Amino acid sequence: MGSEDLFKKRKARRNDEFKRVSKARTQMKKILIVCEGEKTEPAYFADFVKHCRISTASIVEISGECGSSPTSVVSFAKEKYAAEKRRSDPYDKVYCVFDRDAHSGYESAISQIKSLHPKDVFVAITSVPCFEYWLVLHFGYNRKAFSPQKGRSEGAQMLSELKKYVPDYEKKASGIFAKLFNRLETAISNSERAQTEATRDCSVNPTTKVGTLVTDLINIRNEYQKPKT
């Protein structure tokens, strides 16, 4: 075999490999998760993505660098989406994760997300009063509502509730997903039940949509892994 024939075969193999990689990338989803928390939520979702092998089916970026208010989460998400769109590689989904707690911009952030285009790309993943309610739901169904008390916000009260089950839990701590992984299905089921009852009762206190995000990512992974016909 001449060197020219060998070169052509190598080139053909490279082209085939490039086509396979390009096809796989086309089938994968590009996802952005923007969190209000600097460490707790980003660490939780990073551990979840790694443990559940979500990255085998999607390109997931997780950020907690946008500030602590719901409106700053939305602003950061919009900027990131616009930047990637200019590169002709926009996100398929952008999840904005934030709490209501005592934030004055909570309702404004939700309204902004509803008005964004393209539709169905930006999703509000809210927790009332806070992310810790999602963690509480790993241990059983609980719709105990809290109201602000002198010196103690709703979020602080929910944190105390969580510590009944996880005494060593602290804000900004890592490793919480690994501790609760075996209870994930329980949390998803309980969060769906809470959402249903919130609709019936016209009260979102307490509720969380973190289960929606978790379920979406698992479904994306499962769909990608289906045998292609």
Fold topology:
Layout (H helix, E strand, L loop, with lengths): L2 H25 L1 E7 L4 H12 L6 E6 L6 H17 L6 E7 L6 H10 L6 E7 L3 H5 L17 H9 L13 H5 L3 H18 L5 E2 L1 H16 L4
Parallel strand pairs: 1-2, 1-3, 3-4
Antiparallel strand pairs: 4-5
Helix pairs in contact: 3-4, 8-9
- Number of DSSP-assigned strands: 5
Helical content stands at 40-55%
Instruction: Kindly name the structural category.
Output: alpha/beta
Could you give the order of strands across the largest sheet?
2-1-3-4-5
Write down the overall mean pLDDT: 86
**What's the SSE pattern?**
HEHEHEHEHHHHEH
Let me know the largest β-sheet: 5 strands, mixed
Number of domains: 1
Summed up, the helix count is 9
Morphology call: globular
Q: What percentage of the residues does DSSP assign to strands (E)?
A: 5-15%
Note the gap between the termini: 37 Å
What is the gist of this entry?
By secondary structure, this protein is α/β, with parallel strands linked by helices.
Characterization of the model:
This protein has one domain. The protein has helices at 3-27, 40-51, 70-86, 106-115, 132-136, 154-162, 176-180, 184-201, 210-225, and strands spanning 29-35, 58-63, 93-99, 122-128, 207-208. The protein starts with a helix and ends with a helix. The chain has 229 residues and is α/β, with parallel strands linked by helices. The longest helix has 25 residues, at 3-27. It has 9 helices and 5 strands; from the N terminus they run αβαβαβαβααααβα. This is RloB family protein. It comes from Silvania confinis.
